[in-house]
Here is the input.
Amino acid sequence: MAEIPYKIYLSESEIPSAWYNVRADMKQKPAPLLNPGTGEALKASDLYPIFCEELSNQEVDNDTKWFDIPGEILDFYKMYRPSPLVRAYCLEKELGTPAHIYYKFEGNNTSGSHKLNSAIAQAYYAKKQGLKGVTTETGAGQWGTALSMATAYFGLDCQVYMVKVSYEQKPFRREVMRTYGASVTPSPSMNTNIGRKINEEFPGTNGSLGCAISEAVEAATTQEGYRYVLGSVLNQVLLHQSVIGLETKAALDKYGIKADMIIGCAGGGSNLGGLISPFAGEMLRGEAKYDIIAVEPASCPSLTRGSYVYDFCDTGKVCPLAKMYTLGSGFMPAANHAGGLRYHGMSSIVSELYDEGLIRATSVKQTDVFDAAVKFARVEGILPAPESSHAIKVAIDEALKCKETGEAKNIVFGLTGTGYFDLVAYEKYNDKVMDDYIPTDDEIAKSLANCPKI
Amino acid sequence: MAEIPYKIYLSESEIPSAWYNVRADMKQKPAPLLNPGTGEALKASDLYPIFCEELSNQEVDNDTKWFDIPGEILDFYKMYRPSPLVRAYCLEKELGTPAHIYYKFEGNNTSGSHKLNSAIAQAYYAKKQGLKGVTTETGAGQWGTALSMATAYFGLDCQVYMVKVSYEQKPFRREVMRTYGASVTPSPSMNTNIGRKINEEFPGTNGSLGCAISEAVEAATTQEGYRYVLGSVLNQVLLHQSVIGLETKAALDKYGIKADMIIGCAGGGSNLGGLISPFAGEMLRGEAKYDIIAVEPASCPSLTRGSYVYDFCDTGKVCPLAKMYTLGSGFMPAANHAGGLRYHGMSSIVSELYDEGLIRATSVKQTDVFDAAVKFARVEGILPAPESSHAIKVAIDEALKCKETGEAKNIVFGLTGTGYFDLVAYEKYNDKVMDDYIPTDDEIAKSLANCPKI
Here is the structure.
């Protein structure tokens, strides 16, 4: 076997030609979306007014194992994929660990994160359906950035509802989206009924992700030729993101490396679900065993402290209900800088795999995460996004355990993106004014009490 | 010959093992640095108080053709090199040109630019000499970022003097440097004699690159165990940056592609000089012919409107004199956002090659540059730095000429970095409030009148 390079690059011909649908290998399927009015399970056609038809079909399809990736999407993937699987030689040396650490780096594209993998797919299906454009919400801005790139590529209009506090605090994110031709509206806005209502009830509010989702859905369903798109949580998104895991597995296989642990940060579950899909599939089929760890912020611990119930996905309660590990749709996470991990719920697929014990979860504190991020940056030369750094933190912890035990485990983690737009958070860390708020049991219980009774 | 992929990746074993010194193939050598007091040519040992010894030796060595790259530097290079040579299929399609466009993308590392290639080399030699740390100046911040990464890697102290206006307008650049452990001081500061003098003479001044250089040099020469490092202009920097050109040529050769045109942006000349080195070498040896174009901003046109004379490199006039195309050391470029191209002078090597007619030069207006940048970003999925976009602008112009003539030229350009930290400029462009100031002949003549009489 050849020496393992710092970066394992696959060739363009090794980009997966199909997405893998882990649901096909799950005996217990993830729970279906429900109509919030009637409580009935939604069929694909029920979703057509909100999502593109092909995406609606993907959303409810628990049986088709492989979905061919259309050629136009593959051509776009070739501009930034395959992404490298990096052997963290320098980090290993810094830690003095016998463990072998690998990370799948998804930040090598202008959007700066893995979100582009699904954004380009969703834009493609919108274009194929002959739509004029799409609407979406964005919090930290990674998803909005990715989507604006994807819609620019296919010549679609893109309307982004950006949580007001992010719109004001992250003007550069906003400018990237505008540069790619998207219109960006601070949410709650006066453009939608739900926005006007929220502005009236809570004058001067900073907005929230749940509110921006409601606005984007309303905007999609009230404009001719528009549909709503979402960057995480949904089954379709995890399907597209399986490209991360498939490439990771192909790169490991190429060098005869068997992963022992697979670690990913988990907000809505798009990265984690994509990264672990093929590995979880092997476990579900009884072909292999991996120690899979979902890492979430202690400030928003849906897996480790939430309940596995049906809940609302948005503040306005216009979206379908999803069964998931949730902290309650009214849960307001503390100002944790990992904006991408501040969602109250979790992908139904990840929730089900977790509930079955196929994966485990842990939560980490913000300051510890930034300690790990800075250590990583200084030796590996990549400034990681705060979200990604949750995985780094646990990978380092596990590598240090190996140092104690002398085990040479193969630790694989997902580095979902870069931190170029998160320098306000780094500044707080550098100035030692970062907070580590953790919600109380009482806060979580109160929020969970408002879940629908189903 | 295999189909040309979107991204030509070399393997790690194909990273050049030696830097190429184009001076060895130049019949007319670039003019030596002169002592500003005596006007005498400087030997390597004269530079030892300012630069590390090995770097001083590299600076004056016009004869050694290849310098072996030390293993420690190669190990660092492996973390982000070889960088991809990208075939711009999508841009070609957008333009409808028969030309084949390739770009060497140097933005795939956290510093976000090619500057890291020399930063890691300079940090290595400082470490090897047993120094405590280095000092430098930074304007736009690309160089300071790269250097802070490199010094963090080798455990050296790093003191950055950042032009005050950039320090205030680019807080995120500053935070990246701090995250990598550098201390960042707005210049002019009260830390140095020259800084105090300038602050006294010009209260409230915003600073300039020439002033920050003077401060950094003073800081290096008055602290035990420190030396000064510089990210462009110098021969040693172009030597290290030859890695860009060597990889580009190796990638082209691998697929049997003969470049017709090679285009690079030119500020101090670090990227252009590195990119073209091996190609210029072939021309100097009479082995090949290329159309090489240096692109500079119309607001700071040292090659196209400057004079080829000896000039000061800094405001404080503490640095050696260099013979170069210059606009005069007192030239104050308009607030062009391509901060990395705002230097009044140009690398002596590039100046000499230009003077001999081996390369040609052109200048472009800022708004046209951003037009090109946005067009490129939307189809190629990379948000380019304003500096890099100067090359994009001319590459697009040349590709459109090919569309008229029907020629299928191979156009290669250097994409030196990403624009993540340049969103203020993009915002101005998006808001259509970008200016296009071009200096008058009179302004340039007045500035040139202050060059030393040698």
User: Anything to note?
Assistant: The CA atoms of residues 300 and 454 of chain B lie 24 Å apart. Chain B touches chain A through 48 residues (CB under 8 Å).
